[in-house]
């Protein structure tokens, strides 16, 4: 199957939202999408799907999209793979975008394939770098083999060039001053999916406010070494004015909530200071913390891999080291006050 | 339904991640020294498949796509209790990215008349997580990804999955046939039974299907893979100070400095 790649143009960004609230990665992608569209001299188009979400379409325009496509219908709330995939696919086939960016969230990774497969599009998973080459071809790069290598994936003969992109790797876009023409840049599109065709039903959805650890300046992360006691982690994060995070092991044990997981299947954080306590330093974890400015490791095992990836390391029990550290920070803060 | 469900579990042979190295001169991956193992998240998939069979009845068939030695992962699955295994093997599959790979698995699942296809969350060697949704998309089936636990409701012909979502969870009822991606670590995989293991290693022979058996010989392989690796770079290693400190006071000094 050969396709006329020249028929495809524009950069699309999927604006992921749940209950009317946009996922932060949506605005990060919009900012990156703006750069790519400027380079290829194409339009940046935001795609908004949901129930009663025209305000998000307008916000996308305020944050830099040239246009927003709005698919507004009750069938899109809450999210389900098949209605989202089917609607998105229909839009892609009718309007032929060249590049499509989707957040590398559970939602984005759940339905991106439902667009890429029927479109026979190239889909690169979980990218951390995006660029375009001289011919306007998307260069989607992602860590591979546990972050030891970066693979750059291209999609020369198929369109669109799709990528899911990890949250937290790009800076977010900010809304500009209220623009009266904003609403005019929003186009409501025909909804092509119907409830009776849906293959699944959401029976229950339990979510709380999702913390965003990707913006924190200080991150204190606990791993399996916590052994169920996260108090020292929480207290140190508190005095340092930072966020608590976790390795997957601590999340799987239920000690720390999943939204705070750092790593390949969690978040990418970029703090000034990252403290890894009771974390062994598995490649999948390192992938999410490698962008930190300064890394501190606390581990009882002098041979733990994490020490190789830390600026300052101390061999010790986190249940002793962290409270002492907390105490020292507190003392200093009292002196300063 | 009295005769249970046809449960298919997709497994993959991967190089043991800890043993893959990068040649610093060429930037290419050196996998030759790495022993091949069953992709770790697939252990969770096999366990869910067996547990599902225990609750609704039916059969568990393991499938894998790969060169003939990939038979080993089918033996692993049969050793813990899968009823049978299918090996999709053919030179025509060589160089397939997720699009043709999920097509081949989708065709095989349809051929096996699957009610439920269970996969691991992602593979440790390519970690795209795209194959399960890809199988569902090729066949137009429903899907449940990032699943923590399964609750089959055979009387209604649905499989309910508790899915991990940002900030919490949701319970979703999916129509059969359905493709499931189990979350890594979602359950505790059972060990192989001794007799079953011996059977898997000595008597069990997988069914082998080629691309033409599945009628997809001109839709797989490198030529039908939309994505191409355009380059591989050793990631610029992040240079760390690696300073060992002896006391918490000393550690505090460093932290106070960087804050
Ligand atoms: C597909 C896939 C995706 C994955 N994604 C992620 C991911 O996104 N994020 C992630 O983190 N992992 C991920 N993993 C898991 C990863 O491989 C490791 O299993 C995990 O990171 C280990 O977590 P840990 O370091 O907390 O636990 P362990 O490896 O068990 O290490 C615990 C450490 O704590 C130390 N320790 C014990 N007691 C103490 C104490 N009292 N004081 C101080 N130190 C102590 C030990 O010496 C040890 O080094 C993934 C795995 C797979 C297969």
UniProtKB/TrEMBL annotation, chain A:
<dbReference type="InterPro" id="IPR033947">
    <property type="entry name" value="ETF_alpha_N"/>
</dbReference>
<keyword id="KW-0249">Electron transport</keyword>
<dbReference type="InterPro" id="IPR018206">
    <property type="entry name" value="ETF_asu_C_CS"/>
</dbReference>
<protein>
    <submittedName>
        <fullName>Electron transfer flavoprotein alpha subunit</fullName>
    </submittedName>
</protein>
<feature type="domain" description="Electron transfer flavoprotein alpha/beta-subunit N-terminal">
    <location>
        <begin position="11"/>
        <end position="201"/>
    </location>
</feature>
<dbReference type="InterPro" id="IPR014730">
    <property type="entry name" value="ETF_a/b_N"/>
</dbReference>
<dbReference type="Pfam" id="PF01012">
    <property type="entry name" value="ETF"/>
</dbReference>
<comment type="similarity">
    <text>Belongs to the ETF alpha-subunit/FixB family.</text>
</comment>
<dbReference type="InterPro" id="IPR029035">
    <property type="entry name" value="DHS-like_NAD/FAD-binding_dom"/>
</dbReference>
<dbReference type="InterPro" id="IPR014729">
    <property type="entry name" value="Rossmann-like_a/b/a_fold"/>
</dbReference>
<dbReference type="Pfam" id="PF00766">
    <property type="entry name" value="ETF_alpha"/>
</dbReference>
<dbReference type="GO" id="GO:0050660">
    <property type="term" value="F:flavin adenine dinucleotide binding"/>
</dbReference>
<dbReference type="GO" id="GO:0009055">
    <property type="term" value="F:electron transfer activity"/>
</dbReference>
<keyword id="KW-0285">Flavoprotein</keyword>
<dbReference type="InterPro" id="IPR001308">
    <property type="entry name" value="ETF_a/FixB"/>
</dbReference>
<keyword id="KW-0813">Transport</keyword>
<dbReference type="InterPro" id="IPR014731">
    <property type="entry name" value="ETF_asu_C"/>
</dbReference>
<keyword id="KW-0274">FAD</keyword>
<dbReference type="GO" id="GO:0033539">
    <property type="term" value="P:fatty acid beta-oxidation using acyl-CoA dehydrogenase"/>
</dbReference>
UniProtKB/TrEMBL annotation, chain B:
<dbReference type="InterPro" id="IPR000049">
    <property type="entry name" value="ET-Flavoprotein_bsu_CS"/>
</dbReference>
<protein>
    <submittedName>
        <fullName>Electron transfer flavoprotein alpha/beta-subunit</fullName>
    </submittedName>
</protein>
<dbReference type="GO" id="GO:0009055">
    <property type="term" value="F:electron transfer activity"/>
</dbReference>
<comment type="similarity">
    <text>Belongs to the ETF beta-subunit/FixA family.</text>
</comment>
<dbReference type="InterPro" id="IPR012255">
    <property type="entry name" value="ETF_b"/>
</dbReference>
<dbReference type="InterPro" id="IPR033948">
    <property type="entry name" value="ETF_beta_N"/>
</dbReference>
<dbReference type="Pfam" id="PF01012">
    <property type="entry name" value="ETF"/>
</dbReference>
<feature type="domain" description="Electron transfer flavoprotein alpha/beta-subunit N-terminal">
    <location>
        <begin position="26"/>
        <end position="218"/>
    </location>
</feature>
<dbReference type="InterPro" id="IPR014729">
    <property type="entry name" value="Rossmann-like_a/b/a_fold"/>
</dbReference>
<dbReference type="InterPro" id="IPR014730">
    <property type="entry name" value="ETF_a/b_N"/>
</dbReference>
